[in-house]
């Protein structure tokens, strides 16, 4: 077992009280501000007690515990059958979960997940959120990590709640239009600061998509713009801002969701560009920042002129392992976009989707439609030999490393 339990969590909370947080045109006139882009990430001595070099931790875990580490779920998914799927969770008649119950602790003992992702339904008041995240971290003998989508602009979970009195960050489109990377850094710095205050150390941001299609209905103002060079520099500075507070970053939505007209939340979406075309446009901000980011989130878009498997990017071994890992050289954490989105649920059962995404090269399986089916699907695939222990250990090691490098 990973001994990251309540004693460590209490010490982490104590530490928080004393920590001071205080494009295509190569001639684009961007203020690169060397002082911003070279800000060092200073780590505290208080960290999760996980080291990527400590193989004994990984070796001591059971197969069930290893499989659990792959899943980052909504807190509601550890309740009961009334919240068995994502549709029930988001339904208006079902309130969000605001605290850790005995039932959740019991379910966690059986399904020891690696992390929780919070939504507006889980966020009520500052004191509630602080207690909730603390309890979620120490819900079992294996500490979890708390994640959130807090991009700024139209995608926020905490800042949209008036009880927190947090600054509202402008749309990334407006920040990008300033051509000044210090504004992107300020956005990441502000968001990273208040996320760390509430024990949230992994942000599913920044959005590295280029806004290349004026008819796009899902990216739009979430993007820093349509210029690959501008977007790339803005993304890096935003990441630096998050890292100043020990908050992990996630480039999304690889290989780029900007040149689409449909929304993968509701169904099938295709991008017709070739790989070479994508490398000159949508992929550029990702490729330029793979050395800076902690994780990359994979979209559910389909790329018929890039891959031959006909699968969404999130389930394509050709794309994730062949392109992102082997060709572009990324060895960090790969996380799929939510497996409860329509592009997945309309075509795949929860267990099938989880296995396909994992076999393609994803490390973290995010909020499956039916978590229990997905968990059992991966466990059965490991027990049958379809997924090797070596492949399982590879992903778990990456997840443990990202936890071990958190600044607390």
Describe this structure in words.
- The protein is an alpha/beta fold.
- The protein has one domain (6-20, 44-404): TIM Barrel (Alpha-Beta Barrel).
- Helices cover 39% and strands 7% of the residues.
- The chain has 17 helices and eight strands.
- The chain has helices at residues 6-18, 34-37, 55-60, 63-69, 86-90, 102-110, 126-137, 172-176, 181-197, 228-243, 275-280, 284-287, 317-327, 342-345, 350-360, 371-384, 389-404; strands spanning 71-73, 115-118, 145-148, 202-203, 250-254, 295-298, 333-336, 365-366.
- It has a five-stranded parallel β-sheet. A three-stranded parallel β-sheet has the order 5-6-7.
- Helix 13 links the parallel strand 6 and strand 7.
- The longest helix is centred in the middle third of the chain and has 17 residues, at 181-197.
- It is globular.
- The model is unreliable at 1-53 and 262-267 (pLDDT under 50).
């Amino acid at each position: 077992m990973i001994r990251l339990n309540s004693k460590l969590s209490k010490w982490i909370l104590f530490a928080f009280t004393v920590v001071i947080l205080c494009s295509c045109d190569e001639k684009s006139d961007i203020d690169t501000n060397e002082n911003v882009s070279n800000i060092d990430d200073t780590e505290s001595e208080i960290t999760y007690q996980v080291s990527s070099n400590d193989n004994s931790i990984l070796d001591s875990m059971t197969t069930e515990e290893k499989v659990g580490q792959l899943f980052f779920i909504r807190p509601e998914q550890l309740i009961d059958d009334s919240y068995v799927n994502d549709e029930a969770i988001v339904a208006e008649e079902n309130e969000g979960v605001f605290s850790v119950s005995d039932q959740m602790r019991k379910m966690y003992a059986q399904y020891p997940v690696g992390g929780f992702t919070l939504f507006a339904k889980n966020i009520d008041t500052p004191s509630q959120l602080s207690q909730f995240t603390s309890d979620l971290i120490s819900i079992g003998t294996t500490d979890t990590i708390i994640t959130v989508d807090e991009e700024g602009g139209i995608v926020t979970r905490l800042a949209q709640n008036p009880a927190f009195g947090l600054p509202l960050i402008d749309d990334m489109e407006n920040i990008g239009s300033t051509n000044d990377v210090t504004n992107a850094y300020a956005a990441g710095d502000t968001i990273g600061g208040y996320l760390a205050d509430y024990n949230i150390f992994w942000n599913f941001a920044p959005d590295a998509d280029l806004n290349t299609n004026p008819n796009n209905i899902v990216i739009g103002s979430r993007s820093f713009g349509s210029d690959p060079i501008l977007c790339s520099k803005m993304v890096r500075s935003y990441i630096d801002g998050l890292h100043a507070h020990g908050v992990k970053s996630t480039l999304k939505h690889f290989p780029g969701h900007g040149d689409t007209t449909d929304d993968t939340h509701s169904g099938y979406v295709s991008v017709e560009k070739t790989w070479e075309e994508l490398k000159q446009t949508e992929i550029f901000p990702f490729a330029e920042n793979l050395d800076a980011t902690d994780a990359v989130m994979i979209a559910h878009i389909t790329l018929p002129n890039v891959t031959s498997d006909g699968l969404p990017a999130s389930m394509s071994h050709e794309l994730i392992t062949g392109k992102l890992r082997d060709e572009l050289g990324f060895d960090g954490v790969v996380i799929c976009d939510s497996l409860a989105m329509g592009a997945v649920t309309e075509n795949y059962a929860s267990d099938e989707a989880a296995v396909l995404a994992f076999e393609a090269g994803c490390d973290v399986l995010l909020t499956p439609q039916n978590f229990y089916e997905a968990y059992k699907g991966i466990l059965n695939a490991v027990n049958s030999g379809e997924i090797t222990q070596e492949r399982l250990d590879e992903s778990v090691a990456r997840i443990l490393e990202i936890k071990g490098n958190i600044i607390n």
